[in-house]
Amino acid sequence: DAKTTQPPSMDCAEGRAANLPCNHSTISGNEYVYWYRQIHSQGPQYIIHGLKNNETNEMASLIITEDRKSSTLILPHATLRDTAVYYCIVRATDSWGKLQFGAGTQVVVTP
Amino acid sequence: DAGITQSPRHKVTETGTPVTLRCHQTENHRYMYWYRQDPGHGLRLIHYSYGVKDTDKGEVSDGYSVSRSKTEDFLLTLESATSSQTSVYFCAISEREYEQYFGPGTRLTVT
Hints:
By secondary structure, chain A is mainly β. Chain A has strands spanning 9-13, 18-23, 31-38, 45-50, 55-56, 61-64, 70-75, 84-92, 105-110. Chain A has no helices and 9 strands. Chain B is built from no helices and 11 strands. Chain A binds chain B through residues 32, 34, 41-46, 49, 87, 93, 96-99, 101-104, and chain B through 31, 33, 42-45, 48, 50, 58, 90, 92, 94, 97-105.
């Protein structure tokens, strides 16, 4: 699976949009981009995934560049409960369950 | 939260003793996984199961064994615990190839 690069940390003001970048320049055509987050002391939580089209659900939006070498997770209105480590993961469709978690981005939402 | 429980939630044991951690799901998902999480290493896959009695190794399987005799239970056994196995252990489940749902974790300390 391709490797991802994320900034180690970022701050966001409560109520503002949080834009979390992820670089995956070696991504292959059959690899999806997944986002998970982990709130302190809890298990990771699935957020969203996509292949090449932009995706949106009740939690977030995922924007994937046309060349698929990078993506951005958008939390539209950050709340204090969104403070967590956010992981961007690239995984092939035939590698069931084998999520490779990197260091992620520590997001701190401030009042 | 998805119907996943882990037991025990906390355990302290001595080096050389056997330890079994249990993951129980009520979602009837086909796939189950065991991860460990350590500072500086993130989450790493230990073993996974793709059906009753069907299991396979992850990236850090040495010193661990698993069993799945029924859909809802996935057991992780440390035959002879070592201090290097002190960690937080997470179980996860999935039905499709996309999202995994994680349990609350078990904090294991080997003294």
